[in-house]
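task queued by scheduler; priority normal; single chain, no ligands, no partner chains; default sampling; output format set to C-alpha coordinates
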Amino acid sequence: MLGGSMRLMIWGVLLLLLVLFALSNRQPVQLGLWPVDVWVELPLSVAMLTGMAIAFFLGGVTVWLGTLSQRRRAREAEHVVRLLQAQLAESRGSVSSRPDA
Protein backbone atom coordinates (compact mmCIF):
# COMPACT_ATOMS: atom_id res chain seq x y z
CA MET A 1 0.00 0.00 0.00
CA LEU A 2 1.27 3.44 -0.85
CA GLY A 3 2.21 5.78 1.95
CA GLY A 4 0.33 9.03 2.48
CA SER A 5 3.09 11.23 1.10
CA MET A 6 3.51 9.10 -2.04
CA ARG A 7 -0.23 9.16 -2.68
CA LEU A 8 -0.24 12.94 -2.22
CA MET A 9 2.60 13.31 -4.72
CA ILE A 10 0.78 11.20 -7.32
CA TRP A 11 -2.44 13.21 -6.90
CA GLY A 12 -0.44 16.44 -7.09
CA VAL A 13 1.16 15.43 -10.40
CA LEU A 14 -2.22 14.37 -11.82
CA LEU A 15 -3.80 17.64 -10.71
CA LEU A 16 -0.93 19.61 -12.26
CA LEU A 17 -1.39 17.77 -15.57
CA LEU A 18 -5.12 18.45 -15.47
CA VAL A 19 -4.58 22.17 -14.86
CA LEU A 20 -1.96 22.38 -17.62
CA PHE A 21 -4.34 20.61 -20.02
CA ALA A 22 -7.16 23.01 -19.15
CA LEU A 23 -4.94 26.09 -19.54
CA SER A 24 -3.49 25.04 -22.87
CA ASN A 25 -6.87 24.16 -24.47
CA ARG A 26 -8.93 27.30 -23.98
CA GLN A 27 -10.12 27.63 -27.58
CA PRO A 28 -13.91 27.84 -27.78
CA VAL A 29 -15.77 25.02 -29.52
CA GLN A 30 -19.44 24.76 -30.39
CA LEU A 31 -21.27 21.64 -29.30
CA GLY A 32 -24.66 20.88 -30.79
CA LEU A 33 -27.34 18.31 -30.23
CA TRP A 34 -28.66 17.17 -33.61
CA PRO A 35 -32.39 16.58 -33.19
CA VAL A 36 -32.77 19.76 -31.16
CA ASP A 37 -31.26 22.91 -32.52
CA VAL A 38 -29.31 23.72 -29.36
CA TRP A 39 -25.73 24.95 -29.49
CA VAL A 40 -23.39 25.50 -26.56
CA GLU A 41 -20.02 27.21 -26.78
CA LEU A 42 -17.46 25.88 -24.30
CA PRO A 43 -13.70 25.88 -23.96
CA LEU A 44 -12.20 22.76 -25.54
CA SER A 45 -10.78 21.56 -22.22
CA VAL A 46 -14.18 21.73 -20.50
CA ALA A 47 -15.83 19.82 -23.34
CA MET A 48 -13.19 17.09 -23.30
CA LEU A 49 -13.00 16.78 -19.52
CA THR A 50 -16.79 16.59 -19.29
CA GLY A 51 -16.84 13.84 -21.89
CA MET A 52 -14.15 11.92 -20.05
CA ALA A 53 -15.99 12.30 -16.73
CA ILE A 54 -19.22 10.99 -18.27
CA ALA A 55 -17.37 8.04 -19.82
CA PHE A 56 -15.67 7.28 -16.48
CA PHE A 57 -19.02 7.36 -14.68
CA LEU A 58 -20.73 5.13 -17.26
CA GLY A 59 -17.83 2.68 -17.09
CA GLY A 60 -18.12 2.53 -13.31
CA VAL A 61 -21.86 1.90 -13.50
CA THR A 62 -21.29 -0.85 -16.07
CA VAL A 63 -18.73 -2.59 -13.85
CA TRP A 64 -20.97 -2.20 -10.80
CA LEU A 65 -23.93 -3.75 -12.64
CA GLY A 66 -21.72 -6.55 -13.91
CA THR A 67 -20.63 -7.54 -10.40
CA LEU A 68 -24.11 -7.58 -8.84
CA SER A 69 -24.60 -11.31 -9.47
CA GLN A 70 -21.16 -12.16 -8.09
CA ARG A 71 -21.82 -10.16 -4.93
CA ARG A 72 -25.19 -11.88 -4.50
CA ARG A 73 -23.52 -15.29 -4.80
CA ALA A 74 -20.86 -14.25 -2.27
CA ARG A 75 -23.54 -13.16 0.22
CA GLU A 76 -25.35 -16.50 -0.21
CA ALA A 77 -22.07 -18.39 0.28
CA GLU A 78 -21.34 -16.40 3.47
CA HIS A 79 -24.80 -17.28 4.75
CA VAL A 80 -24.19 -20.98 4.10
CA VAL A 81 -20.81 -20.77 5.87
CA ARG A 82 -22.44 -19.18 8.93
CA LEU A 83 -25.06 -21.95 9.01
CA LEU A 84 -22.41 -24.65 8.72
CA GLN A 85 -20.29 -23.04 11.45
CA ALA A 86 -23.32 -22.95 13.73
CA GLN A 87 -24.06 -26.63 13.02
CA LEU A 88 -20.42 -27.54 13.69
CA ALA A 89 -20.40 -25.64 16.97
CA GLU A 90 -23.66 -27.33 17.96
CA SER A 91 -22.37 -30.81 17.11
CA ARG A 92 -19.10 -30.18 18.99
CA GLY A 93 -21.12 -29.05 21.99
CA SER A 94 -23.31 -32.15 21.93
CA VAL A 95 -20.27 -34.44 21.58
CA SER A 96 -18.43 -32.84 24.53
CA SER A 97 -21.53 -32.86 26.76
CA ARG A 98 -22.15 -36.58 26.19
CA PRO A 99 -21.28 -38.81 29.15
CA ASP A 100 -18.45 -41.25 28.48
CA ALA A 101 -19.72 -44.77 27.92
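post-processing summary
- The CA atoms of residues 41 and 83 lie 61 Å apart.
- Residues 4-96 form one domain.
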